[in-house]
Every structure is written in C-alpha cells, then in structure tokens.
Amino acid sequence: MHDADTSADISAETTDAPAAPPLADRRPATRTHHGDVVTDDYEWLRDADSPDVLDHLRAENAWTRSELSHLAPLREALFTETKQRTQETDLSVPTRLGGAWYYSRTQEGRQYAVHARVPAAADDGWTPPVVEPGRAPEGEQVLLDENAEALDHDFFALGSFDVSADGTRLAYAVDTTGDERYTLRVRDLTTGQDLDDEIPDTFPGAVITPDGDHLFYLTVDEAWRPHQVWRHRVGTPASEDVLVFSEPDERFWVGVGLTRSRRYLVIELGSKTTGEAWVLEADEPTGRFRVVWERRDGVEYTVEHAALPTGRGDATHDALLVLHNDGARNFELAATDVPAPGAGLLDPATARAVVPHDPAVRLDGVDAFAGHVVLSLRRDALPRVAVVDLAAVETGSPWPLSEIDVDEPLFAVTPDANPDWAQPLLRVRHTSFATPTTVLDVDLATGVRHVRKRQPVLGGYDPADYVQQREWATAEDGTRVPISLVWRRDAVTLDAAGTRAEPAPLVLYGYGAYETSVDPYFSVPRLSLLDRGVVFAVAHVRGGGELGRAWYDGGKLAAKPHTFTDFVACGRHLVDAGWTTPRRMVAEGGSAGGLLVGAVTNLAPELFAGVLAVVPFVDALTSMLDPSLPLTVVEWDEWGDPLHDPDAYALMRSYSPYENVPDDASGYPRILATTSLHDTRVLFVEPAKWVARLRAAGAPALLKIEMSAGHGGVSGRYARWEEIAFENAWALDVLGLGGAPA
C-alpha cells in the first residue's frame, strides 16, 4: 500500500546521475511478410524476464530522472495544487438498491476507497441520506475497504464488485500486480467474512444471481480475450464450476450481466463489427441460455429487458429492447419478444422499430425501468440523455423522446448509477471542461431536477473564470473536424473582436480509434495548466465516435490515415487562427492516441514543440502481425489484418510510428513516452523500442516506465496525481512555463 507521502516517482529507483543517455544494443532480427524484408534492431527488448532488458529499462528511467531533475520543484507544486484543490475526505452520492443506500468514501491520506451502505428508510422518498465526509453514519456497514485489501501490495485494482439483490453476498475481484488477472472472492455480508470460494485468473465483470447462490464469471484465453462464461455455485470448489458458454472465434469478446429488472441473465459478445446476445431467466441459473438474434456479419446489437404496455389498462408484457445497426448506420431501437425456453431463433424482421434511425443522431445505449426507457445518444458531437415515458407510448407510433437540456456550449450528460428497476428518479452525470462533475436526480414523472452533488473544488474555484469554445478545422479532403478548447479567461489575451491578441501555449489532445469519443470532461490537475496560461484543446479526429458511426468508419481500416491528417489539420488550424505557434504547442495522446501522436510526429515534426505519448501503441504493425499477442486478432477489424492481407500490411507499414522513424530525427520535437512493465494491452516493448530507435536517430526522446503497474498506470489516487504532475511538468517545461501561476 502507498501512503500519501510515498512517491511513485522514478527517482526512487536510482540516485546516480548517468553521464549519457542509454543507447540500446543493436541486435538485428529479420522478419519477412508479403515479400517485404524488415530488419528490427530492437525486438530483443520484448523479453521482460531478460536481465539485459530490465537493466536497459532501469537505465532509461535513470536518464529520464537526470534530464528532468530540474522539474522536481514544479512537479511538487503541481501535485500540491491538485491535492489542495481536492476534497480528500469525500464520498459518492448514495445510490439506492432495494433496502439500502450504497456509496463509497475516501479519506485524507488514504490511497483507495471504502465501499459501504446504510439501511434505507421506508419513507425517504428516494432522497439520499446525508452522509458527512469523514464521519461514518449511524448504521453504516463497510462492505469492502480497498486500503485494507491493498496492504503489502505495490499495486491494487478492484475489478468485479456486485452485491446480490437480497443484499446478503458480495462478489468482488482484485488485481495486485497490474496484469489485469483478477482473483474472484465471495463475502458474506451478514458476517463480513469471506467465504472459502476463491477463483483465480478471472476477467472483470462477474455477476452474482439475485439469490446470491451462483456466480457467473469470465475467463480469458492466451491472447487475454474474455472468451468463456463459467457458473460457480457458492460454497463449492472452483474445480466443480460449469462452463456455460465458450466463444471460439478469436474476433469476439464475451461479457455477462443481469438486466436491471433482475429478470434475465445476459451473455453479450461482440467483435468490432458484429454482435450477439443470449438470455436466461435469472431464477433458473442452471438452465440453458437462448440466443436472441443469431449473429450476422456486420450487424451489432445489445439487449435490455423491458415491461411494455399492452394498451389494456396497466397491463404490461415482457419484451427485449434491441439496439441495433441492421440497416441503421447510427443504430435504431427495436422491440421484440423474449425467446421462450426451447424456442427457435427469433426473426429480426419481426422486431418493431420504436426509435427509428436518424442519420444526425447516434444512439449509444438503452436503459429500461419499470415505467420509463432512457436513451443515451449523441448529437452535434455531444453526449445527451433522453427519456421515454412508457405511459405516453402509442402502439404503432415512434416513441416520443424528452431530452435533458444543458445550458452550456460544450458539455457531457450521461446516465449515472441507476441500479433499481422501480426507482422513480433517474440519476445523470453532467460535466464539461469548466463544470465540475455534477450528479443530478431527475424526477421521471415531473422532470424536476435535484442537484445531489457537485464535485467540490477547493480554493475558490469559479467556473465563470474559464471559457469553452468549439472551432472547426478543414482536413485535407475538405472534411470539417471539430476542435474543443478551454482556457482561463484572464490568462489568454483576446482583442475586442474575440480573436487572440497573441499566441498562447497550447496542449492538443487526441485519440481517434474504436469509436471512442473524447467528450468534455472536468479535470482538477488540468486547472494547473490553465491557470498558467495554457489552452487545452481536443482534436475530435475521425476514428472516434463524436459525429456518429460514419465518423468512426472514416478513420479505421483503409481510412485510418485520416486520423493522423485530421490531427495535423487541427494543429495547423490552431496556428493559422492565432491560437498558438509550433514552438508553443504540445501534442498528447495515450494508447491508440499514442499511435496517433507518434504517427503525427513523423508526418509533421515541425508542427509541435513536444509530444507526450502515454502507453503508446507505436509498434502497431509488429503487434498486429503476431496473433499470439493479447488483443491482436480482435483488433484486426479495427486496423486490418497485415498478417494475411498485403494491402493492410502496406498501409500499416506506411504509418506505424516505429517503422517510420527516419535515419535523421534530430529535428524532431521533444518526446516523452510513458509505459508500465505489466501492461497487457500495449506491451512495454512498443515505447521502449520506439524511444531506442528515436534516440539512435538523434531525436530528443525520453522513456519513463513504471516497474509495478499495468495499462492504466500506477494505482492509488496520490500516486496517480504524482504521475499526472510528472507529465504536466514536462509539458510546461516544453512550453517554456514554470513556477507558480500568474
């Protein structure tokens, strides 16, 4: 366990300042695909068990520490600012499920959360109880103290966490190495003691049946793909667990869950392009799952159980709401019957569209309640929530949507924790680049909103001090690409016409993959950048999902280069519009966003002063050529299959950052790559090889590697703040800023 004063800084690894940067040995290895012979001098860095590799990684950390030692005071200042702005002793808004209110709380000086509950009063009107931070309320029961579980571990992450509907048992899973292999356990909440049940090497997402007698959990194959669902009867050895579903197709990931009504267990599986769902009555957990719609290549769908009106008084009938893209690129919502036990496959043609396809609106998700249906959707590149009152639904007509409005130019509104089928209030979460995360309960009958909590930001924070704005860049092919910007009003000088009087330092962030949208979000550590005059911008490039499925399709597979050229277009727009200059702009991206900024570094090295690549996917071609690696086969639908398709190989060869480092990279911007030794998604070898090649070519590149963490970096909030402070101090140094904010 890390205490508050324990640093995650790499300075803990060595005290000797190296005289020169480490130059990795060249140990040529040759690969040949589709007639292309490639010599890779640094593939030997892949072996995490090799003493030579570990020595090299430690040398990289020592060099980075030495090169950035002058930033220690700035890092400390940034960490302190985050700490001083954060209410360290805090708690979440209690969420009601059945007869109890559930919440988590944090305490000053402790890295992790405590999960607890208090009994619900019969007459509370679904108003959460007032729980004072730092003071355990009367009747509190601690379900799980992560701090206690993390004792004697350098890393701790909580995976599965599910309480049975009767409130008597908790299924939870923990990872103490960072390799994302979780040990699943069962806790008897009537005694607070763990039962003998212990199941190693599970994947997050286990569920416990309403009666608490059975668990359904996931295991992974050698490529770290969740591919099997197992049933465990509580109180029996794991060796007696029953395999209930196995997916042999390596493109598909499998998940398991319960509908909100607790009526059905659902197994959902999906590739990047195809989905399938199976259902089983939750009160018959040893029965057989039935498929809803048999998979069809290119058709994605998810299901949710609903009780729909029959038109005869208050009578309802069970139905499945199917959110699908069969002939509906941006998805539509259809209703269909629940497949009966022993019934054959349902015909998708018999499903009735209740929210038809709209080319301007992307439907992202559906949540059903006893009397309402809630849709998560995306319009004008912003996430929104709409409510359907089932009492107002007319048979045969499209469902009327009532959208939850927000008075901000940029925002994100999403459903929050809503576990109870009968709850009369809908909990949503609202945030923006300037608005701290705000939890609201919306009365489903009246629409009245109750603000339950706004994320406290200490030190006199005022959202009015910050400005948000949307701009549009023009890509090479004429496509308009949205850019979101936020800055401190008094730290960026504008003239009377609202244009920049002088260029500002700017961080441009991007991702652009998997249809993942980078929506407006509030960040306490980011305030330290904004208060020093930095403009923070997000390039919503193709490959993300901000503008619907077409936006995603426009930046994947053969269209992947659009992601990179869109980002360059956004950078050049910000320069041309006077927001910044190349010498005052840092590009930032993580994971697939690390691939983005790595590719952009090769495309336009003159456009940026620095590139921050967090756990970057920079040796993408090598990884996609090896189907034994975690995620590779699953990812072929995203990037292409270079192992079997020569065109996909040639395309990835043309943009993969590691493959395209020039012999002379001395004119490249400053580069900082971060990674973790136990990352199972983007292996540490990718940034390690990239930095080795960059440095050999003369680029000013640094590598920071956490020796006891995974893809998400270090665990614990204080350690995470220190990690962010390290990255932000480096960015400020590149931008020529330091010291206290003006």
Characterise this structure.
This protein is α+β, with helices and mostly antiparallel strands. Among the domains are: 52-84 and 460-734, Rossmann fold (3-Layer(aba) Sandwich), CATH 3.40.50; 88-144. Helices cover 17% and strands 32% of the residues.
CATH topology of the domain at 52-84 and 460-734: Rossmann fold
Low-confidence stretches: 1-14, 709-714
Superfamily (CATH H level) name of the domain at 52-84 and 460-734: Alpha/Beta hydrolase fold, catalytic domain
Average the pLDDT over all residues and give the rounded result: 92
Kindly estimate the percentage of residues that lie in beta strands according to DSSP. Answer: 25-35%
Number of strands: 38
Distance between the termini: 37 Å
CATH architecture of the domain at 52-84 and 460-734: 3-Layer(aba) Sandwich
Radius of gyration, in Å, reads 26 Å
Shape: globular
- Return the CATH class of the domain at 52-84 and 460-734: Alpha Beta
Helix % is: 10-25%
Structural class: alpha+beta
Q: In which order are the strands of the major sheet placed?
A: 31-32-34-33-35-36-37-38
What is the number of helices?
12
Largest sheet: 8 strands, mixed
What descriptive keywords fit this protein?
742 residues; alpha+beta; Rossmann fold; 8-stranded mixed beta sheet; 7-stranded antiparallel beta sheet; 38 strands; 32% strand; disordered N terminus
Please outline what is shown here.
The protein is of the alpha+beta class and 742 residues long. Helix content is 17%, strand content 32%.
Present the secondary structure layout:
Elements: E1 29-33, E2 36-40, H1 51-67, H2 72-85, E3 90-91, E4 95-97, E5 100-106, E6 114-119, E7 141-145, H3 146-149, E8 157-163, E9 169-175, E10 182-188, E11 193-208, E12 214-220, E13 226-233, E14 242-246, E15 253-258, E16 264-270, E17 275-281, E18 290-291, E19 301-309, E20 316-324, E21 332-337, E22 352-355, E23 362-368, E24 372-379, E25 382-389, E26 402-403, E27 412-415, E28 425-431, E29 438-443, E30 449-454, E31 466-474, E32 480-488, E33 506-510, H4 524-530, E34 535-539, H5 549-553, H6 561-576, E35 585-590, H7 592-603, E36 610-614, H8 620-624, H9 632-639, H10 646-655, E37 670-676, H11 685-696, E38 701-706, H12 717-734
Parallel strand pairs: 33-34, 33-35, 35-36, 36-37, 37-38
Antiparallel strand pairs: 1-2, 3-5, 4-5, 5-6, 6-7, 8-9, 9-10, 10-11, 11-12, 12-13, 13-14, 15-16, 16-17, 17-18, 19-20, 20-21, 21-22, 23-24, 24-25, 25-26, 27-28, 28-29, 29-30, 31-32, 32-34
Helix pairs in contact: 2-4, 2-12, 6-7
